[in-house]
Each structure stands twice: as C-alpha cells, then as structure tokens.
Specification:
Blueprint: H1 24-43, H2 54-72, H3 77-90, H4 92-110, H5 113-124, H6 127-145, H7 148-165, H8 170-187, H9 192-201, H10 205-233, H11 242-252, H12 261-271, H13 276-294, H14 296-302, H15 306-315, E1 318-319, H16 325-330, E2 332-333, H17 340-358, H18 361-371, H19 376-393, H20 397-414, H21 419-431, H22 441-450, H23 454-457, H24 462-476
Antiparallel strand pairs: 1-2
Helix pairs in contact: 1-2, 1-18, 2-17, 3-17, 4-13, 4-15, 4-22, 5-7, 5-11, 6-7, 6-8, 6-10, 7-8, 7-22, 8-10, 9-20, 9-21, 10-21, 10-24, 12-13, 17-22, 18-19, 18-20, 19-20, 19-21, 19-24, 20-21, 21-24
C-alpha cells in the first residue's frame, strides 16, 4: 500500500514473539495507559497536553511502560531494542517518501503544477459532483498505481486544493479521496497489501481479489451514495467567487496544460514499476525545471536567484501571495520541514510497537482474542478486532496483516473455511482502517500529505470504517463464506 519496497518485509521470516511469562493483563497495561493518555490529550487537552508533540511523547511513555513490563517479565533489553530497530528500519522508505512528498508539494507549487490543477479543476468539477467525482478519480489512479500513498501525493493534493477553493469542508474532501484511494489500493494486483494478505492466509492473489470484491464493491457503492447525498446538502461558499479565483491564479502564475506533464510523468513511472522514491524524486526534479521555464516571475518574487527559490521550496516554508485570501492559504507549503512532525510521530509509534512486539504483548493479545473465537462468526469478529487493535497498538498496517494472518490461519482451517475468507477479512479490517489511527504510519502519512487531521476526516472516510462492518455482516449471515472443498463446518 505504501510502496513496493515495503513488500520486502520478509513475510516468511517474520517472527512473532510469544512470551509465556506475560499474561493478558500485563500485556494490556501499556495499551490502557496509551489509550487513556491519547484520549485525554485529544478530547480534553486539544492535543496540547505536553505541547506540540504531545502524541509523540505519549507513545514514548507507552513504550517506556511496556519496557518496564518486559524487564519485570525477564525479557532482555537487547530483544526489545532489536525489535524497535527492526520497526524503525521498516519505515525508512516511508520516511524518505514523506520527505519527497514535502519536496514535491513545494516544487509543484512554485512550478505552477498545483495551481494549474486547481485552475482547470475549478472549471470542470462543479460542487454538485465534486465529492463523488473525487472518489472515482482517486479509485482509478489507485487501481492503476497500486498505491493509496501515490494517489494522495498527486491527485489527492490537487483535489483538496480544488475543494477548498470551492468552499467544501476539507474533512469531506479528504474522506472522499481516502475512500477512493483505499478502494483502488485493495483491488489493485499491484498493491503490496493485496499481495501480502493472501500470502499470509495461504491463497493466491486473484482468488483473493475476486473474493474480496464481494464485500468491497457494495461498500464503495454505499460510500458513493453517501457522498452523493452529502453533495446535495452542502452549500459551498466558493461557487460565486470562482471567476475571481481563476483571475487571481491566472494573474499570479503562467497557467498552461503543459504543466500536467509533471504529474503524468510521475504516474507513468509508477505504472512502469519504477520505485516510488525514484518516481517522486523525478517529479521534484521535473517540477524544478518547469518552474524555471514557466514561472520565472514567481521564483523572482521568492528569492534573488532561481536556485535559491527552488531549494527553499524543497526544504522549508514557501508561500506565494495572491490578491485572494483563500488562495493565499492554499498556495503555501512546508516542504520537507513540514513533514518533520509526521515523521517524528511515526518513529515514536515504531518505538511503542517494537517494544510491545519484543515483550510478546502483541502475540498475547491476539491469542486472547483467538481463544474466545468458538463460533464461525466469533472467529471473523476476533480477526477483525485483532486487526483493528494491532493497527492501534503496533501502529503499522503490515503487522496488522501479518500477525493475525499467522495466528488465525490454522483456526480458519479447523473451521473448514477456505483461506480466502481470512485474506479478505485481513484486508477489510487491517488494510483500510490503518488510515483511521492518527499515530499509525498510514494515518500520519495521509493527514500530513493532505493537510487534514485524522479527526477531521475520520467520519467522512466512509469506505474505511464501513469495510469491517461489511465483512462482519457477511460473516453473520453466512454470505459468500467459502468452505474448504469436501468439508462442512
């Protein structure tokens, strides 16, 4: 889901540490403390309990509590540190991607790529169809690239810009983009999580995709209906001001369709299976070249030299002034510097998740869920809860697929259930809900790239929170629950 490099997570060698000395209550102590502090910080302290980096510090506190618990249960500090290091290594590529996305946002701004997307988008996407259209556009790009991350970093940024200019709630826009992006990501054979889930469950890729369509297609249809209804109820404030917005953009930038060569080049590189780091870096370099040729006046207004203006757009804050207040807010970027908060959050989450894995808490919690799965529905429900919990505790969608996949595989077989039941459930509850957790790598990435907080888009990411419910409904009513041939549960 993030990029092909991350599929090198060494699935076959993935070790799940089981500490028989650790009981379920001890395993849950760090989780309860973490969730309690995060809830207080979000709902009562407005995210400022310990300053700007409150969530990061809370994750480190949770990690410290888990570390103490491990020491009391005779877990070697070396094991815990090793697991933390393994977790941090696993997010090295996402961190590089985040830095490049920051650079991409800055260079696409000064080159006129983002303003051009907004300029033409305002003329094509009316408020009445904008939200459903955003879902469809994001879904198409995500199916083609196999990456929700690439989708958000390209058309996602543009769609948020267009929607904000139209006066639409940013949370709604981000929710629509994320819904479409994760639908496409799930259904694309190019996606790493779409390959990872069947590998864990013991089925093949295309059987998995076909079987997953039973729950995924109804969920995206419901999502489209919901956003269509929302579109008829919202009253955009920017509609009457479109002509003024277009005039302001045209006055500030040299707008031309040639600028679309930059995002098209990035998407083509992804389609031809170039590494995301290479594709995004190419997008930064191309945008820098286009800025020199197409936006000399913009660069001159930012710095005395073109080189300095471009370097600043890559590394730090860039703001391009127009005669419209809405556009002034929109045409600003933090560059790589703007991604530091998100990167710090991911690193702290990896520390907490690594220690929890190192002391055997993740395996203990998953086993506890498995032990109460006495019925077929209970098995599905336990798998869903396990995936959701690991997305929150381990802060990584890959672990939310790998650990339940390995732990529940035999249980599904014992119930006479075909492996595609498990692979579908892993995707319906592990892959798509990762973006709903603020400190999960996916939640941190999407909120950082789109500039919209998880709490702002959570409700509107309909496809993502509806997917686990859909898979449970199918399980409860035994809809498309395939048995192993020759066996009846």
């Amino acid at each position: 889901m993030q990029d092909d490099d991350l599929s090198e997570i060494k699935v076959d060698d993935q070790k799940i540490i089981d500490n028989k000395e650790l009981n379920i209550y001890e395993a849950m102590v760090p989780v309860v403390i973490l969730m309690g502090l995060l809830a207080y910080n979000i709902f009562y302290a407005d995210g400022e309990m310990m300053g700007e980096y409150s969530n990061q510090y809370i994750l480190l506190i949770g990690g410290f509590v888990a570390f103490i618990g491990g020491m009391l249960n005779k877990v070697s500090p070396i094991i815990m540190i090793k697991e933390v290091w393994e977790n941090i290594k696993s997010v090295f590529v996402p961190i590089m991607i985040l830095f490049l996305v920051g650079a991409l946002a800055g260079t696409w701004l000064v080159s006129g790529v983002i303003p051009a997307m907004v300029y033409y988008g305002l003329q094509v996407l009316s408020p009445e169809i904008f939200l459903p259209a955003s879902i469809v556009i994001a879904a198409i790009i995500s199916i083609a690239t196999g990456s929700s991350w690439t989708t958000s970093a390209t058309v996602g940024i543009a769609l948020v810009g267009i929607g904000v200019a139209l006066g639409i709630n940013p949370g709604m826009i981000a929710g629509a983009v994320i819904s479409g992006a994760y639908f496409g990501d799930k259904m694309s054979p190019l996606s790493d999580t779409t390959n990872l889930a069947p590998a864990m469950a013991g089925t093949d890729l295309f059987t998995h995709i076909k079987y997953m369509a039973y729950t995924t297609v109804p969920t995206i249809v419901i999502t489209l209906v919901v956003f269509s209804i929302i579109s008829f109820t919202i009253e955009p404030t920017g509609t009457a001001d479109i002509s003024n917005l277009l005039a302001s953009i045209d006055k500030t930038f040299n707008i031309t369709p040639w600028l679309f060569l930059v995002p098209v080049a990035v998407i083509v590189l992804i389609l031809f299976k170039a590494k995301p780091l290479v594709a995004l870096a190419s997008g930064v370099i191309l945008a820098a070249i286009f800025a020199v040729f197409f936006q000399p006046d913009v660069l001159k207004g930012l710095s005395d030299s073109n080189f300095s203006a471009i370097v600043n757009s890559v590394l730090t804050d860039t703001a391009i002034a127009t005669d419209n207040a809405t556009l002034n807010d929109l045409f600003s970027s933090g560059g790589m510097k703007g991604m530091l908060w998100t990167i710090f959050l991911i690193l702290c989450a990896m520390v907490f998740g690594g220690i929890m894995d190192g002391i055997g808490a993740l395996a203990r919690i998953t086993k506890a869920l498995l032990s109460v799965a006495t019925t077929i529905f209970g098995l599905f429900a336990s798998t869903v809860i396990s995936c959701l919990g690991l997305n929150a505790i381990a802060s990584d969608q890959y672990l939310a697929i790998v650990i339940p996949g390995k732990m529940f595989k035999n249980a599904f077989e014992d119930k006479g259930l075909a492996p595609e039941n498990l692979s579908r459930t892993l995707e319906d509850s592990g892959t798509v809900t990762s973006v709903l957790i603020p400190w999960n790598t996916c939640g941190a990435y999407q909120s950082g790239v789109l500039g919209v907080g998880v709490t702002e888009y959570f409700f509107y990411a309909v496809f993502n929170w509806l997917s686990p419910f859909t898979t449970l409904v199918f399980a409860a009513f035994r809809i498309k629950i395939r048995q192993i041939r020759g066996r009846v549960s």
